[in-house]
């Protein structure tokens, strides 16, 4: 049947299927290369310029969606959660990154209760991973407004459907909300959802991982110390 996933249907031997899936995973190519060269001894003294350099190269060389990042948060009780979103800006000098969300979304509520988070990028084409952890604050209404109004019409309409992560009765309900949101932004192009918030993660640690096809990976960690940074080469 069209659209059916391999292995769907009844009568599955789950253990055998799991072994077959593991075999396919092991056979899948990893770090096929060629990968960029990274010399840790040439890395700058602060992480922001290195992040900007890696991101700029990924954009220039057509790495798919290198500005898409995984945001990890935790609730007040320490329950972790992660999701993928779009990077909304970079402060290279301070090694800070911007992202946006509805303040009443699960991630918005997590950050209100526990304003620490992690960002993780992985670019398979370059074999590069970047991790940042730090404190998160909110920027003002003007910044949030500029961010929202700078988006495409489709993105702005999506912001007005609201109800992030709440139960959905079916596609019809979503379609009605989407059409109502499109009508709203057509009638009021300068309107911004009340909860739209621009967040700023100021990195306290930043790690850069460069993979190597021969598995001699390189890993550098920057740790903020007062007004400066400490750079450390790590075992991968």
Automatic annotation (TrEMBL):
Belongs to the pyridoxamine 5'-phosphate oxidase family. FMN binds at residues 107, 129, 219. Residues 56-158 form the Pyridoxamine 5'-phosphate oxidase N-terminal domain. Binds 1 FMN per subunit. InterPro entries: Pyridox_Oxase, Pyridox_Oxase_N, Pyridoxamine_oxidase_dimer_C, Split_barrel_FMN-bd. Keywords: Flavoprotein, FMN, Oxidoreductase. It comes from Actinacidiphila rubida. Its cofactor is FMN. GO terms for biological process: pyridoxine biosynthetic process. This is Pyridoxamine 5'-phosphate oxidase. One of its GO terms (molecular function) is FMN binding. It comes from the Bacteria. Residues 198-236 form the Pyridoxine 5'-phosphate oxidase dimerisation C-terminal domain.
């Amino acid at each position: 049947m069209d659209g059916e996933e391999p292995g769907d249907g009844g009568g599955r031997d789950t253990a055998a299927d799991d072994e077959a899936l593991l075999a396919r995973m092991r056979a899948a190519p990893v770090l096929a290369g060629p990968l960029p060269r990274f010399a840790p001894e040439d890395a700058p003294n602060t992480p922001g310029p290195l992040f900007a350099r890696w991101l700029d190269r990924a954009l220039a060389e057509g790495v798919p969606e290198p500005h898409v990042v995984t945001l990890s948060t935790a609730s007040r009780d320490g329950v972790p959660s992660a999701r993928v979103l779009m990077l909304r800006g970079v402060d290279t000098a301070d090694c800070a990154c911007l992202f946006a969300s509805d303040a009443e979304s699960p991630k918005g509520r997590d950050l209100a209760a526990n304003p620490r988070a992690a960002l993780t990028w992985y670019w398979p084409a370059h074999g590069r991973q970047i991790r940042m952890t730090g404190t998160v604050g909110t920027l003002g209404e003007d910044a949030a407004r500029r961010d929202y109004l700078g988006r495409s019409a489709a993105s702005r309409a999506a912001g007005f459907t609201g109800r992030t992560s709440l139960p959905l009765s079916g596609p019809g309900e979503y379609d009605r909300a989407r059409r109502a949101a499109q009508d709203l932004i057509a009638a009021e192009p300068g309107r911004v959802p009340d909860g739209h918030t621009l967040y700023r993660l100021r990195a306290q640690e930043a790690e850069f991982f460069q993979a190597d096809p021969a598995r001699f990976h390189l890993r550098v960690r920057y740790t903020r110390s007062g007004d400066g940074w400490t750079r450390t080469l790590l075992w991968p």
